[in-house]
C-alpha cells in the first residue's frame, strides 16, 4: 500500500522502468463503422495485436456498431477474418479466446435512438460482467459527414457523460472538416459534447515509429541541429506516394481529393515535426505548442499557379498490370475534377527557416509506394576539384524513410577509388530491419493504446487542425476556380506541371 499522503500509482499502468510498455486499464472500445474498410484492415487487427502483446487488460471489451443484421457470433467471425488477414503478430488461440469473450455487436443506424439505447444497455452489462468500469472509448470510423450525428446521439443517450471515476473519450477519424469553416463548426459540436481533454483526433502518421523517430533524430543528437536551418538546408521535400488507385473508395474520395485527404493532415504534421523548435519536454502541451508555432508561421509561396500542381490519374501500367484511369473507376463521375495528385510549396516565416521552401506532394497510382522526408542541403560554396571530377556529385541529402524500408539515409560525396580525385555520391544508411530486433508496432496499435491510456501527445489538437485548413483553403480555392486538373499516366510520377513547378526554380523532385 502507498505511504500515507502519497498518490498511489498502478505499477502496470505506470511502470517504474520507462522502457516497459504501459498496459491499458479496464475499458470498452466501441467502434462505429466496424464493417468498414479501416476497421477491417487496421482497427480490429490492431486490437488483436495489442492483446497479443499483453497490453490489454482482462477486463476489456470490443463493441462493434453498424447497420448489418449481425449477432455477436457473426461479429466475432468478422473480427477473426480481419485478424487472420491483417494482424501483424501471429495468431494465438488462447489470446483470441480470451479477447473474443468481450466481443459484442450492436446493429443500428446512427439516427436510430433505440440503437443507442441498446448500445448503452450493452455497455452497462459489460461493466457488470467483465468489469469494464464504465470507461468507454468511442471510435468514429465512419463517413466524416456522420461525425456530428454520432456525437449528438452519444450526448442524447447519456453515453458521453462520465459517471464517478469513469472516463469517456471520443476518437475522431480524419478528415476533420473539409475546410476551415466546416472544421470550426464540427469542433463546436464535438466540444459541446466532450471536453477537449476527451477528444482524440486521429492522424495515423503520428502513430508511425519512423515519424516519432524524427523527434529522436533531431533532439537526441548533437550532430544534426547545427545543419537544421536555412544556413545549410536548400529546401525540404516531403513525399507521400502511393501506387494504389481509388477503386471502391469513390464514396469517400470524390470531391475530397489528395490535398484534403493527406496534405491537410499527414504531410503538414510531418512538416511541423521537421520545422519545429525543441519542446521543453515531451508533455503533450509542449509538443503541440511547438507544432502550432510552425503551422501559424507557414504560408503558401505565391502565385498558386506557379507553385502548386494537381493531377488526376489516367489509364496506364502499374508494374505488369494495366490499370484504369480515375474516371473509369466505379463510382466516379465522368466529369469529376477531384485531384489524385497534389503538390504545394510552403515557407515557414521564422529565423531558422526563412527562404527555405518546403515542397509537399502526394499522389495515387504513382511509380511506387513511398513516404519520405528529404532535407536537400545547399551546394558547397567552393569545390577545389577539376570540374570533370565532380560531374556525378549532387547536393547532400538527408532522407528520413518513413515507409517502406524504414530508416534514414545520408547522401554525400566520396572519392572514387583510384588514382584520380573523382568524387561521386554515396549513401550512408540506417535501416530499422538491421539495427533493431524489435518489430515496429502498427500506427493504429500505438494510437488505440494511447487512447485507452488517455495519452494525447500523438493526437493533433483543434488549433493544429484549423491552422492546417487555413494553409490549404486558399490553394483549393485557386484550384477550383481554374477548372480541371491535369492528367498523368498511372505508374508515372505525376503531371508535367509538377515537374515544371520545380524546374521553374532550378530544382527537381526526387525519384525515390
Ligand atoms: N479506409 C482507409 O484506409 C482510411 C479511412 N480513414 C477514415 O476512416 C473513416 C472510415 O473510413 P472507411 O472505413 O474507409 O469507410 P467505409 O465506407 O468503408 O465504412 C463506413 C462504415 O460506416 C458505417 N455506416 C455508414 N453510415 C452509417 C449509418 N447511417 N449508420 C450506421 N453505420 C453507418 C458502415 O456500416 P454499414 O454500411 O455496414 O452499416 C461502415 O461500417 C473515414 O472517416 C475515413 O476518412 C482514414 C484513414 C484511412
Ligand atoms: O489517411 C490515409 O492514408 C492512407 C495511406 O496510409 P499509409 O499508412 O498506408 O501511408 C491513404 O491510402 C488514404 O487515402 C488516406 O485517407
CATH class of the largest domain: Alpha Beta
The total number of structural domains is 2
Give the name of the CATH architecture of the largest domain.
2-Layer Sandwich
Instruction: Average the pLDDT over all residues and give the rounded result.
Output: 94
Low-confidence stretches: 1-6
CATH homology group of the largest domain: Dihydrodipicolinate Reductase, domain 2
Global shape: globular
Q: Structural class given helices, strands, pairing?
A: alpha/beta
Fraction of helical residues: 25-40%
Strand tally is 17
Fill in the CATH topology of the largest domain. Dihydrodipicolinate Reductase, domain 2
Work out the radius of gyration.
24 Å
Distance between the termini: 57 Å
What kind of sheet is the major sheet?
A: 11 strands, mixed
| Distinct small molecules | NADPH dihydro-nicotinamide-adenine-dinucleotide phosphate, the ligand O=C1O[C@H](COP(=O)(O)O)[C@@H](O)[C@H](O)[C@H]1O
Tally of helical segments: 15
Strand content: 15-25%
Organism: Gordonia hankookensis
Active site: 266 (proton acceptor)
Pathway: Carbohydrate degradation; pentose phosphate pathway; D-ribulose 5-phosphate from D-glucose 6-phosphate (oxidative stage): step 1/3
Keywords: Carbohydrate metabolism, Glucose metabolism, NADP, Oxidoreductase
Amino acid at each position: 500500500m502507498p505511504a500515507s499522503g502519497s498518490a498511489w500509482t498502478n505499477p502496470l499502468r505506470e511502470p517504474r522502468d520507462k522502457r516497459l510498455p504501459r498496459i491499458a486499464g479496464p475499458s470498452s472500445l466501441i467502434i462505429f463503422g466496424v464493417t468498414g474498410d479501416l476497421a477491417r484492415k487496421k482497427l480490429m487487427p490492431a486490437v488483436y495485436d495489442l492483446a497479443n502483446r499483453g497490453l490489454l487488460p482482462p477486463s476489456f471489451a470490443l463493441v462493434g456498431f453498424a447497420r448489418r443484421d449481425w449477432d455477436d457470433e457473426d461479429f466475432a467471425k468478422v473480427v477473426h477474418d480481419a485478424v487472420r488477414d491483417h494482424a501483424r503478430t501471429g495468431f494465438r488461440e488462447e489470446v483470441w479466446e480470451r479477447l473474443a469473450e468481450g466481443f459484442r455487436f450492436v446493429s443500428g443506424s446512427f439516427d436510430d435512438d433505440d440503437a443507442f439505447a441498446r448500445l448503452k444497455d450493452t455497455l452497462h452489462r459489460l461493466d457488470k460482467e467483465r468489469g469494464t468500469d464504465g470507461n468507454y472509448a468511442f471510435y468514429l470510423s465512419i463517413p466524416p459527414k456522420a461525425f456530428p450525428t454520432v456525437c449528438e446521439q452519444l450526448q442524447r443517450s447519456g453515453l458521453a457523460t462520465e459517471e464517478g471515476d469513469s472516463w469517456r473519450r471520443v476518437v475522431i477519424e480524419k478528415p476533420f472538416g473539409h475546410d476551415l469553416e466546416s472544421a470550426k463548426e464540427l469542433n463546436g459540436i464535438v466540444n459541446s459534447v466532450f471536453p477537449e481533454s476527451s477528444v482524440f483526433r486521429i492522424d495515423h502518421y503520428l502513430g508511425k515509429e519512423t515519424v516519432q523517430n524524427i523527434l529522436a533524430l533531431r533532439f537526441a543528437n548533437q550532430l544534426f541541429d547545427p545543419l537544421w536551418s536555412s544556413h545549410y538546408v536548400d529546401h525540404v521535400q516531403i513525399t507521400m506516394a502511393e501506387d494504389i488507385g481509388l477503386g471502391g473508395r469513390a464514396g469517400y474520395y470524390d470531391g475530397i481529393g489528395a490535398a484534403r485527404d493527406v496534405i491537410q493532415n499527414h504531410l503538414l504534421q510531418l512538416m511541423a515535426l521537421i520545422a519545429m523548435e525543441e519542446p521543453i519536454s515531451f508533455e503533450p502541451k509542449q509538443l503541440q505548442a511547438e507544432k502550432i508555432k510552425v503551422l501559424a508561421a507557414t504560408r503558401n509561396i505565391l502565385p498558386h499557379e506557379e507553385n502548386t500542381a494537381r493531377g488526376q490519374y489516367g489509364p496506364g501500367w502499374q508494374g505488369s498490370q494495366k490499370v484504369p484511369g480515375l474516371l473509369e473507376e466505379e463510382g466516379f463521375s465522368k466529369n469529376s475534377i477531384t485531384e489524385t495528385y497534389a503538390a504545394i510549396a510552403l515557407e515557414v516565416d521564422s529565423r531558422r527557416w526563412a527562404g527555405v521552401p518546403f515542397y509537399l506532394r502526394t499522389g495515387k497510382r504513382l511509380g511506387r509506394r513511398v513516404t519520405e522526408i528529404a532535407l536537400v542541403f545547399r551546394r558547397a560554396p567552393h569545390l577545389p576539384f577539376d570540374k570533370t571530377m565532380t560531374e556525378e556529385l549532387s547536393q547532400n541529402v538527408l532522407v528520413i524513410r518513413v515507409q517502406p524500408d524504414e530508416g534514414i539515409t545520408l547522401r554525400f560525396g566520396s572519392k572514387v577509388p583510384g588514382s584520380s580525385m573523382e568524387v561521386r555520391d554515396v549513401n550512408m544508411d540506417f535501416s530499422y530491419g538491421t539495427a533493431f530486433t524489435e518489430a515496429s508496432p502498427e500506427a493504429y496499435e500505438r494510437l488505440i493504446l494511447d487512447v485507452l491510456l488517455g495519452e494525447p501527445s500523438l493526437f493533433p489538437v483543434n488549433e493544429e487542425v484549423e491552422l492546417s485548413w487555413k494553409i490549404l483553403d486558399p490553394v483549393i480555392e485557386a484550384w477550383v476556380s481554374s477548372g480541371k486538373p491535369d492528367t498523368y499516366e498511372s505508374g508515372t510520377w505525376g503531371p508535367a506541371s509538377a515537374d515544371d513547378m520545380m524546374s521553374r526554380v532550378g530544382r527537381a523532385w526526387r525519384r525515390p
